[in-house]
Amino acid sequence: MTNSVPPSSSGSSSTTGRSLAGKRILLIVGGGIAAYKALDLVRRLRERGARVRVVMTAAARQFVTELSFVSLSGERVFDDLFSPTDEGAMGHIELSRDADLLVVAPATAHLLARMARGFADDLATTLLLATDKRVLVAPAMNVRMWLHPATQRNVAALHADGVYFVGPAAGDMACGEFGPGRMSEPLDIVAAIETALQGDTRLPLPAGLHGRTPAPARSLAGRHVIVTSGPTHESIDPVRYLANRSSGKQGHAIAAAAAAAGARVTLIAGPVALADPPGVEVRHVETARDMLEACEAALPADIFVSAAAVADWRVDVSASKVKKQPSGAPPTLVLRENPDIVARIGARKEGRPTLVVGFAAETNDLIANARAKLERKRCDLMVANDVSVDSGVLGGEANEVHLVSARGVETWPRQDKSKVAAMLIERLAEQLRRRQGAAGEPPIAEERQ
Predict the structure, then answer these.
(1) Residue 196 falls within a domain, yes or no?
(2) Residues 203 and 262 in one domain
(3) Which of 91, 156, 320, 400 is deepest in the core (most CB within 10 A)?
(4) 184 and 285 within one domain
(5) Which residue segment(s) compose the domain that 210 sits in?
(6) Boundary of a domain, candidates 193, 214, 235
(7) 320: in domain
């Protein structure tokens, strides 16, 4: 059973109004800084007509107050396994059986571990063990905790038991690090709740999982992966530049996922407002020519992923600030074509990476443009995504991609960029294994020939 629940295509609840009218949600709040988001989650659920009962762990009380949940839910808050009044009527059984869905948000690493081991040492874990209803968890923890093999084992065990997952998302963390581990936003969790209540099992897997077991441990161990990320800045004068809206979130997530799979990773990052992913060698650059030089210097590599939004053009840089003319006429900027980095790498006769992956960020004719780029740039795989204004991809937390190869087009549902990254890295690791003759269909590069 595949039982991870993605956010809706708009990044918010798939329906508005009273879409959860009459539904009974038991919300278990774990202890973490993300607990404050659970307050907004209660409000969003109530707006849609759901009845929400809240159970707080002892650690959750260190971050949010019982009174806040009482005010928002209109219900008393539960936290005591040994309450004389509640347990006289077997309260933990009644709470768990009365709900249509149990939601754990935030689900900390500690709480996930206790769930996976079947502990029942407080009211929250007892409810989770006593329920016969679906359970949806929204993980939230430090990136290193999420990527740790122990947490991945626990997630895999819960996934195999039928627990649904939403997130975690990739992004900046309170500790100053970047990567997967942020709790999904409340509206994304609401959308996941709506999907989980429908019992949809045709859904993608939690990041880092394949089937019902963890992704192969260190599936890229001994490999070198080069990833480009973010925009480039092309100077006009000492104070102005040409740029684009790329945040670098997808590229950084891919680098983090490759490192988690055991690869030696070189991340070549344009100007971004992101922390360097842990365990990754980062080379910061500014222009397209800087990025090309850094890419060629980082070779050889087994995999090259060109996720950066490299500027197509540059101008001759003025040594001084370009001033307004008395006539009011605008200055003339002569555009010069920048080097096409992924095409240069893909066309190399010596030292070409085994797999060269390009990104096609388009606003129209997405698949047609991606197919053309696949051939023109001599890539083994093109990852196509819609970056029009309404898509919310540029700068956002989610992405919907299409994997384009000579064999066809594979569409993945909209999901957190960390999940896209984990799935892409797993796919590339499989292609490298096939190159070694491990099994199965030919690799993407052979399909293209």
Answers:
(1) yes
(2) no
(3) 156
(4) no
(5) 24-214
(6) 214
(7) no
Could you tell me the pTM of the whole model? 0.55
Angstrom distances, CA of residue 355 to CA of 83, 168, 264, 300, 430: 60, 28, 15, 12, 11
Number of Cβ within 10 Å of residue 422's Cβ equals: 29
- Residue 195 shares a structural domain with residue 229: no
Pairing of strands 101-107, 313-315: unpaired
pLDDT tens-digit series, residues 244-303: 889 999 999 999 999 988 899 999 999 999 889 888 999 999 999 999 999 999 999 999
Residue type, 360: A
- The identity of residue 427, as a single letter, is R
Could you write out the DSSP letters of every residue in 203-236?
-PPPTTEETTEEPPTTTTTT-EEEEEESB--EES
The yes-or-no answer on residue 175 being catalytic is yes
- Whether residue 168 contacts residue 181, with contact meaning beta carbons closer than 8 Å, is answered with yes
In the set 175, 221, 297, 335, the catalytic residue is: 175
Number of folded domains that form the chain: 2
Predicted confidence band at 378 (pLDDT cuts at 50, 70, 90)? very high
Burial class (CB in 10 A: 0-12, 13-18, 19+), 177: middle
pLDDT band per the 50, 70, 90 thresholds, residue 304: very high
267 & 416 share domain? yes
For residues 253 and 342, state if they share a domain.
yes
pLDDT at 6 over 70: no
pLDDT tens-digit map of 354-370: 999 999 988 899 999 99
**Cα end-to-end distance, the chain, whole Å:** 36
Q: How far apart are CA 443 and CA 446, in angstroms?
A: 5
Q: Residue 439 sits in a domain of what CATH number?
A: 3.40.50.10300
Q: How far is CA 159 from the centre of its chain?
A: 18
Same domain, 274 and 205: no
Copy the structure tokens of residue 176. Answer: 């100053």
Q: Which residues contact 157 (CB under 8 A, 6 or more apart)?
A: 116
Task: Identify the pLDDT of residue 106.
Answer: 93
* Domain limit, last residue, from 165, 182, 214: 214
The overall average pLDDT reported for the chain is: 83
Task: Read off the pLDDT of residues 172-221 as tens digits, 9 standing for 90 and up.
Answer: 666 666 667 888 889 888 888 888 887 644 334 454 443 333 343 478 98
Q: What distance in Å separates the CA atoms of residue 402 and residue 390, rounded to the nearest whole number? A: 17
131 and 279 part of one domain: no
CB 114 within 8 A of CB 149: no
Residue type, 328: G
Mean predicted confidence (pLDDT) in 415-441: 79
Reported as a single tens digit per residue, the pLDDT across 10-21 is: 344 444 567 788
